[in-house]
Amino acid sequence: MVEPSVVSGFADTPEGALVALIQIAVRHLLAPDWQAVVATDLASGPGGPAYVALRTEAEKASQMPAVPGHYLQIAGFSFVSYSPTAAEVNIVSRATTGAMQVVTETVVWQHGDWKLLLDSAGSAAPVAEPVQSLAGYVEWQGSEMTACTLPGITLVCGAANSVGNSLISAWASTIGNAEGEC
Predict the structure, then answer these.
(1) What pLDDT does residue 154 have?
(2) What distance lies between CA 124 and its chain's CA centroid?
(3) Backbone φ, ψ for residue 48 (5° rounding)
(4) CA distance linking residue 178 with residue 165, whole number of Å
(5) Closest Cα partner for 81 from 18, 26, 128, 126?
(6) Distance linking the first and last C-alpha atoms of the chain
């Protein structure tokens, strides 16, 4: 289900966890109604309130939102671990210069759906490490740097770093969204 920016109904599978992670990581950073995403799609814990405080301060300082064209493109992923209750995933992104970085993000199964887990400082991925190749990762196919329109939100099929050094893994949803275009 997609309601402007809030997403739900992901399968309790590795694929469902991956798609949820990508979707929620983007939406909590880029959606105009990011507060709804935070309230619905983030895991319970101190990370949500910490993120809200960071995001609110960034907006007051005019540091938001990230500018399209500066996004990193999703290049690949690998599962660090998976269980029916949690998935930890490495996400590799590529800059327009070709430089790549990897971050590790986690989703947990709560209240019948996958939720993005933020650390106590409000970040989904506090550390980005450079990578030289996609060896050991599943290549992310078909992610072009294009704008995608979904009901109530426009995304870029790519990714960027923003508030709290979190990875914005923007990828347009096709789950339950016949109206979306990319």
Answers:
(1) 34
(2) 8
(3) -60, -55
(4) 32
(5) 18
(6) 18
8 falls within a domain: yes
Residue 37 has pLDDT above 50, yes or no: yes
Question: At a CB cut-off of 8 Å and minimum separation 6, what does 60 contact?
Answer: none
Residue 30 CB: number of other CB atoms within 10 A?
23
The total of structural domains in the chain comes to 1
Q: Whole-angstrom Cα distance, residue 128 to residue 91? A: 10
How many Å apart are CA 97 and CA 26, to the nearest integer?
21
Would you state the structure tokens that stand for residue 81, as one six-digit string? Answer: 């671990």
Residue 175 lies in a domain: no
Q: Look up the pTM and report it.
A: 0.73
Residue 120 predicted with pLDDT over 70: yes
pLDDT (mean) for 134-139: 95
Tens of pLDDT, residue by residue over 8-28, are: 999 999 999 999 998 998 888
